[in-house]
C-alpha cells in the first residue's frame, strides 16, 4: 500500500509571524506519521525559520519552486543546492501557476526535477489540463505528455521517490473539484503512462496526489479512490485546524 502524502502549498500567503504561529499550533497536535506524510510548501523567505520550528515534528518542509542550476547570476531565484542546505526536503515543480506566469515549460520542469534529485530533494511534479483541453477530451493525452516530459531520464529509483500531483487548472482556487471518479481516472492514466515506460513494479509504487479545491469536506472521498495517494492543497492548508483535518483523513485512508 502507498503511504498517503498530504502537502500544503501556501503560495504567496502568510507573513513570517503567521507562519511561526501555524508551526506552533501544529506542534501541539499528534498525527501518526507512520500513516501519512505531511509537508508544508512555504514561501522561500521563511523556509529557514519553518525548518527550525518544525524540527523533530511530523511536518516536513518544502519549497514551491527552484532553479535548476546550483548557483549563478539568476536574480531572484533559489537553487536546489541552497534549499537542501537549509534543511528543506521537498520542492513543488511545474505548478500550473509557474507554467502560466513564469514561463516554465516541460523542458525546464524536467531539468528542475533532475536537479532536485541531485540535491536530495523530493520533487512534487505538477501536471494538469485547462478547462478548454478538458472540454475537448484532451485531458489524458495532455497530462500523460506532461508526465513523460517531466520524468524523462530519471532512474527507476528516482521515479519511485517522485510525487506526481494531478491538478486540473480549472479546479485550482475555484471551489470546483473534479469528481473523485474523474480525478481517479486521470491518476490511473498517469500510472498507466508510468507503467508503459517503467513497468508494473515502479508504477505501483509512485505516489500520485490530486489537487484543486481539496478541503476537509471532500478529501475522504478523494483518498478512498484506488489511484489517489494524497493531496496538494492550497486554500485549505492555510489554517492549522483545517490542515490537521486533511492530515487525519490521510492517516485514516
Ligand atoms: O494549486 C493548488 C495546490 O497547489 C490548489 O489550490 P486550492 O486548493 O486553493 O484549489
From TrEMBL:
Homodimer. InterPro entries: Aldolase_TIM, TIM_sf, TrioseP_Isoase_bac/euk, Triosephosphate_isomerase, Triosephosphate_isomerase_AS. Substrate binds at residues 9-11, 173, 213, 234-235. This is Triosephosphate isomerase. GO terms for biological process: gluconeogenesis; glyceraldehyde-3-phosphate biosynthetic process; glycerol catabolic process; glycolytic process. Its EC number is 5.3.1.1. Keywords: Cytoplasm, Gluconeogenesis, Glycolysis, Isomerase, Phosphoprotein. Its main location: cytoplasm. Pathway: Carbohydrate degradation; glycolysis; D-glyceraldehyde 3-phosphate from glycerone phosphate: step 1/1; Carbohydrate biosynthesis; gluconeogenesis. Involved in the gluconeogenesis. Catalyzes stereospecifically the conversion of dihydroxyacetone phosphate (DHAP) to D-glyceraldehyde-3-phosphate (G3P). It catalyses: D-glyceraldehyde 3-phosphate = dihydroxyacetone phosphate. One of its GO terms (cellular component) is cytosol. The keyword Cytoplasm applies. It is found in: Cytoplasm. The active site is at residues 95, 167. It is an enzyme of class 5 (isomerase). The modification Phosphoserine is found at residue 213. One of its GO terms (molecular function) is triose-phosphate isomerase activity. Signal peptide: none annotated. Belongs to the triosephosphate isomerase family. PANTHER family: TRIOSEPHOSPHATE ISOMERASE. It comes from Psychrobacillus psychrodurans. It holds the Pfam family TIM. The keyword Heme does not apply.
